Amino acid sequence: MSEQNRIVLAYSGGLDTSVAIPYLKDRTGKDVVAVSLDVGQGGESLETIKERALACGAVEAYIVDARDEFANEYCMQALKANAMYEGVYPLVSAISRPLITKHLVRAAHQFGADTIAHGCTGKGNDQVRFEVSIQSIDPELKAISPIRDLSLTRDVEIAYANDHKLPIVQTEKSPFSIDQNVWGRAIETGFLEDPWNAPTKDCYSYTDDPDFPPVEDEVVIEFRQGVPVKIDGRDVTPLQAIEEMNRRAGAQGIGRVDLIEDRLVGIKSRELYEAPGAIALITAHQELENMCLEREQHRIKRDIDKRWAELVYDAQWFSPAVKSLNAFINDTQQYVSGEIRMVMHGGRAVVVGRRSAESLYDYNLATYDSGDTFDQNASNGFIEIYGLPTKVAAARDVKFGNGIEVPVNDVE
Predict the structure, then answer these.
(1) Interval 318-323 mean pLDDT
(2) Taking the CB of the first residue and of the last residue of the chain, which one, N or C, has fewer CB atoms within 10 A?
(3) CATH of domain 6-171
(4) Cα separation of 16 and 20, whole Å?
């Protein structure tokens, strides 16, 4: 089959992308290759999704268990960057899109396609993430969205599926739009679009009610160069660390986020997130960095972390800017090794202990007890030199009548 007769489709197995297979064929005359990845979203098996794609008319089905790849290369980089968009959102969807795109492009090359299709709407961030990532990897590939570009609405999709006898079982539509993977879960639309409405219990799946927690859970997480390698003394892979912390932190109701979010496309949206494992691991990682990073390095990294999260949210995973920031972030992790003890209970993850052979915390310098090795006399010269610029400036202000006025209390 020539390149002009193939489209690669990001295929989830749901109504939208199942209908898109024959619809794209009808509208464009091109055969469709379905691409599906398991990034820890749960639900149907990849084999079931593959069979449905072929039954809907796909000429090929490219399926990948990408859970370890996602955890190792994407979630761990987000963890090293303490990535929290707008200070609270750990980039659940934003870090999965570059990985999915990489495999879409790989499939396009493998099966001889010149176009990649995705199921995003024209109002969301993901359309930008997919298409900018495609351009970043292979600028020659074209990108289309059936829902956005071909006016596929749900009623049109259902009628089309029925007319073409597609093997799709229609169920009651969820009141929410949900995207999930092992790093977390995003919930939006429905009654949540009114920001006055409080979330209901059925919004949540990864977390239990923090108001009714089980007994507190103490966990010890060991990191090596910024990556969790042991939990309570047991060796874990990054994927296993995330999964275990999802389960344990989720049982305590940790990781719920309710946010009015500034989307990349300029719209403010109301978003709910659940990311128990991500929030718990980032909390622990940040505290270990507090011990192991030099002061100025740490100050710069906090600024870099914020910018990294913004850039990745804004579809720049493959950009030169993020590549350069990654080099700095990865360099800072050289000595971020040690153990964090954390108590999880009732929606909170609280660090209660930390230790590291590579820590910059020196007990003998920090203690106020006997054995203190800090030379307190050195502070006199330090303060004089440190305060010299403001002292000189203050003298000038006084000379020209601009000194700080100090009120004088009347004494009877």
Answers:
(1) 98
(2) C
(3) 3.40.50.620
(4) 6
Tokens of 233: 């003394």
What's the pTM value of the predicted model, to 2 decimals? 0.92
Q: Is 314 annotated as a binding residue?
A: no
* Mean of pLDDT values over 237-266: 97
Kindly report the backbone phi and psi dihedral angles of residue 271, in degrees, each rounded to the nearest multiple of 5, phi listed first: -130, 140
Residues 11, 121: contact at Cβ < 8 Å? no
Does the annotation list 179 as a binding residue?
A: no
Domain ranges of the chain: 6-171, 177-293+335-361, 364-397
- 10 marked as part of a ligand binding site: yes
12 labeled part of a ligand binding site: yes
State the pLDDT at residue 172.
55
126 in a labelled binding site: yes
pLDDT of 412 reads: 57
Residues 328, 238, 234: CA angle, nearest 5 degrees: 125
For residue 408, pLDDT beyond 60: yes
18 marked as part of a ligand binding site = yes
Question: β-strand 177-181 against 184-188: which pairing, if any?
Answer: antiparallel
* 345 contacts 217 by C-beta, under 8 angstroms: yes
Task: Judge contact between 209 and 255, C-beta under 8 A.
Answer: no
| pLDDT mean over 407-411 | 70
Catalytic residue list = 16, 97, 126, 177
Region 177-293+335-361: CATH code: 3.90.1260.10
Q: Region 240-250: what's the mean pLDDT?
A: 98
Cβ atoms of 170 and 243 within 8 Å: the answer is: no
